[in-house]
Every structure is written in structure tokens, then in C-alpha cells.
Amino acid sequence: MRKVLSMSLAAVMALSLAGCGGGKNTTTVEETIKEETTKATETTAGKETEAVSKEDGDSGELTWDMAELILTHISDPEFPDYSVSVLDYGAVPDDGQLDTQAIQKAIDEVSEKGGGTVIIPSGDYDTGAITLKSDVNLCLEAEDTVLKFTKEINHDNYPLVFAHYEGSKCYNWSPLIYAHQQKNIAVTGKGKLDGQADKETWWNWNTTFNADGTTTKPSSADAKVLRKMTDEGVPAEDRVFGEGHFLRPNFVQPIECENVLIEGVTIANSPMWELNPVLCTNFTARGVHIDTHGYNNDGCDPENCNYVLIEDCYFNTGDDCIAVKAGRNRDGRELAEAGFPTQNLIIRNNTFADGHGGIACGSEMSGGIKNLFADNNTFDSPTLNYALRFKTNAERGGAIENVYLRNSTVKSVGNAVVHATMLYDVGRDGDYLPQFKNIKIENLKSDGGQYGIFMEAFEEVPITGLVFKNVEITGAGKDIRALNWQDPVMENVTINGKSYPRPVDTKILGVPVPGAEITGSSVLLGGNNEDLNYEWLIADEKDGSYVPAGTGGKLQIPDDAAGRYIKLSVTDKQGNEESSMPYKVLKANEAAGIKDNGEILRAAAKGYIDEDEKLDLSQEITNRDCAKMIAKLWDLDAPKEEIKISDVPANDPDYNAIAAVVEAGMMNLKDPSVTAAQGTLYNAGVTKDVAAKRVAFFPDASIDRDEMGYIALLSCGVPYNETLGTKPKFDDAEGIEPAYRSNVGASAYFGFMTAKTGNDFMPKDKTTMGELIEIVTRISDFSNK
């Protein structure tokens, strides 16, 4: 069975690329699953899942045998032995004139005659949108065959058709290659499909760079209108865009089609997503070379499809390489209720050269995604952010379940080899909690990235059925983020040389003062917390020699321990150890002249403030104050490289702290000629010239509360660079600077900042020292320090 999943590109080429594809079945008789199982699974995908699960003796979890079963339902479309050339219908290569009518007439006539192959010989052919018809294989015959889709955007060249835009149905500009409710269709051959999108055509609808250095996003307004129509249940026929609007079409979009093959061709310069089969059954992409880096240039996005095979493809994209979709919000949920999740996918033997994510699920996944098997894929670029990525939120909802990734070669990633979050975009704003369950990753090696593994879920819906087996990750900036995992299995896993299961998130709860009782907290990730051993250590100096002070989950601080340092060491049965940060034992329940204030006391114990230096908690803080405390929070002593700051010279006593915080992206430099908030750290909507003007820190300027909310999220230690839609729920939220608004919303969600009066945030009030201490202490607790 293994050889079916690992069929080489050479074998595929020998079988099916003798010029034009089609007509090849993906399985052989001896590879067919045993007769009894086949009989039990010939109907719906749901019954297949049930049959295999019962056979395996589990409740819903599948095995790799299911992948073999899926392959028995996937085959190439077959075409009659009849072919025509577009030259016979009036197409003329290399003349710069549109050949749309000739190409379309050939397709229409071949379909009407019962089917066959429409051949496009060598040469460049200019065309508008092409509509595929049943039983037609459109073959780009030679390597120098190029279909160039015109830059003249009008409804003659790109007519108004029923389409999907980012998971929502509507009427819009025709996809460049389109089909609706057709059977047995293909685009094959050795040639190239060139969408001719660039900064002046199609892509400028996403972002237009203005002469003054600012940017505009023409498509945003239309996208918001479509989202509102979707949520309100407006019928698709009334969601009309096209002329006068700016929703970009996808390159290849078959909708409600059966038996679809895209094979051998090269695709470049797409307006938006490259391959986007929607509600299709039996879809194959094989040997496709995708090379395009425009906005939202996803490679292959199967959406609410059943039986999908993506193999031997090359992805070099400006967004996710493969992004499995399942409809957005109400549209997606209605499809799920009608029995159309995205399910039964095989992804094998592909090369992921560049993109945001290699194999992604979401964020448009409201209809649910299940039964995805990825085998023997190569991820090969330091600018590839993730190898496997799940992204959703409480507005989307949906479940990702039964995902299996094995035998992956990940040479390098920028962010994390495995990344999953429910906080994408609007985060917890919504009533539809998503789920991640039954995810198994095995036989994986990777190097680099901000994190080895980053997976987080809402507390109400933890990740279940999570298995890591034979995983080795090296060179990651941080080992792991594991938020709300339920009973994970970790077998033969090492990250940065540390083996798992092992203790993580080790910290001390309470305030260490003489005579008080403090509590230890730790998690044995991949094991049973009852197998952890707690040992308390004490030293005279923070970096001094620690000696045992007690064992067990709690410790009563000795009466003579004031001024000394306590930390907690936790070990598992294999000897894996993790220690908390050192806590200073305070003299009494008073710090900085403030009594019985838990956050002030914990800030002093952690070294963020001096317990003996009296503070005025109502004092307005400056950027300098903020940077110094953030530097203490993260032990940032100095920048790794010289940071030039126009108003903080290198001989400033606080230069190292300020420069280190700026270098870490936790506070921003600003343009001294502009007083208003300008953009965010992760906003690509400014030119390099604008960014180059941001050279000043304004060390002695005060900080408005809305800017403090922005800073709080940047400095929380987790790269939440995509929680950009989180809405603050304060009564005065409209008064928050737009550039800061989403970060304030996220900071409020995490509890870093709260309303000041009633439900008013008071965004233009100045941040006080007391508020800064509270924020830093809460971030510290959030980070398990």
C-alpha cells in the first residue's frame, strides 16, 4: 500500500504525460481495498469513515488505510480519441490579437460532439476568460505554448458569472478558466497559463500605492459588502459585483463539477487564488508548476470538495501553497448542513518552495475539513512560514479533524513547522467555536523558525487527539507553544535538543514573603502531571548558587528568607527538567510604598520594579519608562545590532534597553513630522520611503491608553501579527486610533488592559505607572513567567 502513496513523478509522467493528460486511473487491481471494506464504503464519505473507524476499534479516528480507500474513488477523466486544433477555428499565435472566440468555439463544438481534446499548439495566444465544457481536455501542447489572459478588464473579456470569492458565493468577474456544473474536464500539457497580473493590473485592486507614499485597498469595501450579504443570507443572485467593483477573480475555478484534472501546466501571475475547485467531486492536480507572488496568490485551494488528489506539484506562491477551504461563515455552515464539507484529500510528493503556509486549512473553513492525508512532501525555503497550518476563529467556526502528515522533509521555515490558531483575524469574536481534533504528525524533521511547534485553541474547545511521533526540530527560536492541548501524545519528539514528554510552563503562584505559602505550577506536556516531581531552591543572589529548600507542590517561605531568591525546579521520570524564573522574597506585603497590591507585589518579586523605591502609581509614564520595564520583562540587555534612533543617542543611559525593545518589535519608531498614529508594525500598507522616515522614539513623550494597548500586544511574547480584526468591545471604541484598534481589542481579550470607567476604555487618557505595572505583570503571567 505504501507505494501507492509514494508514486514518483517519473512514474506519473510515464503513464500520463505523453503530451496531453487524461485517461489514467490512479489505482490498480491489486491496490484495491479488500472486497468487504469496499462494499461497506461505496456510498457516502460519512459511511466510509464509519466503516473504517469501526474496523480500527476507535471512535472517529482514522488510519493511513483510509488514504488507500480514498484513492479508489479518484481517477482521471477519460476523453474520446478525437482532437482539434484552435488554429482550425481561427486562432493565430503571436499576433497580439484576442483568440478568445476561436478557443471558446473549439471547446463548445468538441463538447457538443461528445468530447475530445482541444489542442493549443506552440506560440503565444492572447485571450479573455475561457469556459470549459463537459468531456473536453484543453491541452497546451508544447513547452512554448502560452495562454496570455488580457489586461483589458471588461465584461466582454471577463463576463459576469456565478463564482465564489474567498468562500462566499456571488456574481463576479469570470475566473480566467471557468466551469460550472460540468463533467470530465481537464487542462493539461506542457505550456503556460499567464494571468498577466501585476501592480498595474488586478493586484492593484488589493493595494494601490499612491504618490504621497500612502496606500489604498480598493477591494476592501466590496469584500465587506459581500461579507455582510453572506451573514444576512442575501441570495447569491442578488450579490452582484463585476463592473464598477474590485473583487479579483481566481485563475482556475470549476464549480459543482465532476472528474476534473489539471496536469503538467505552469501557472503564473494570477489575479488571486490559482486553482480553486468548489463543490467538485474527484479533482486532481498533478505535476502543476505554480510560480506567482501577488497578493492572495494561494496555489491550490479545494473548497467544499470531495475526493481530491494533489501530487507532484511545485508551489512558489505569494500566500499559502495549498489552502484547504470549506466556505466562509453562513455560506459554509449551510453547505455543511447540506452534506458538503471538504473531505477525503490526498496531498503527496509535492515541493513547497515559498509561501505563507505549505499545507494550510482555513481560514474559510466554516463547513468543516476532514480526512486529509499528506505524505512525502518537501518544504524547501527559509521564507516559507509554516509547513502545516490551521487558522480559524469564532466567527468562522467549523472543525478540522482527521489530519495526517508523515514523511515530511522541512529544510527550513520562518515561523513554525506546525502552526495552529483559533485567534486568526477576529479571534474570539463570534458564536461559532471551531474544533481541532485527531491530528497526527509523524516522521518529520525541520530546522529554524520562531517556534518549533505553535498550536493554540480556545479553553472551551481544547485540541484533542493530537499525536506527534518521530519528530525532530532544531534551530527554533522558541521550543513550543501549547495552549489548551488535551492529553496529547508525544513519542520520540525532540525540539532544540529537548526530548518530549517533558515539563513546560513552570511557574510560581502567589507572593513570596516570609511565612507565606506559595504554589508551584507545571505541565508534563505529552504525559501525566502526576509524574512530575517538584523541588524548591533558594539562593542569596539571583544568579547565585541555589540549594534545596523543600519538595512538593507548595512551599512555606522561611521566616529568614527576605531578600533571598526562590525558584522551582520540576522533573519528570525520565529526568527532563524545567525551572521557573527566580522570584525575590519580599520583606513584607508592601512594595514600592504600596501595601497589599498583588500585581505590584508580584512585579517586585519578579524584578520589574524595585521594592524599596516608592512609586506614584498615578504618574504618567513616558516611552522611556515603558521600554525599560518591557526590557526587564524579557531580559533584553542590549540590541543584537546597532539601532539608529534619532533622539536616543548610543550614550544615553537607557539606549540599550530602548534599542533592544525596538529591535524586538515591541515598540515602534515614529516619523517626527507626523503626530497621528501611522500604521502598525505588521501593516504592509506603507512604502519603504514612509517606513524610512520613522526614526524617532520620543523617549520623554507620554503614552495614550490606546497606544499602550497596541504596545501591550506587541510585547506579549507571542507573534500575534494576524489578530488584526479583533474588535474592542468598549462603548468608546470609535475613539481608538484605527492603527491601534485591533491590538487594543486583542489586549482586552487577553486581559492585558481593561475598561477604565464602566465600559469606557478612555483611549486618550494617559497611561499611568500603576497601569504599566499591571500590564507588564499580566503579560508575565500570560507568558508563564
Automatic annotation (TrEMBL):
Domain of life: Bacteria
Family classification: Belongs to the glycosyl hydrolase 28 family.
GO MF, any single term: polygalacturonase activity
Protein name: Glycoside hydrolase family 28 protein
Organism lineage string: Bacteria, Bacillati, Bacillota, Clostridia, Lachnospirales
Keyword annotations: Glycosidase, Hydrolase, Signal
Organism: Enterocloster aldenensis
Domain Rhamnogalacturonase A/B/Epimerase-like pectate lyase: 84-158
Region (Disordered): 37-58
Signal peptide: 1-18
GO biological process, one term: carbohydrate metabolic process
Keyword Oxidoreductase among UniProt keywords: no
Skewed-composition ranges (Basic and acidic residues): 37-57
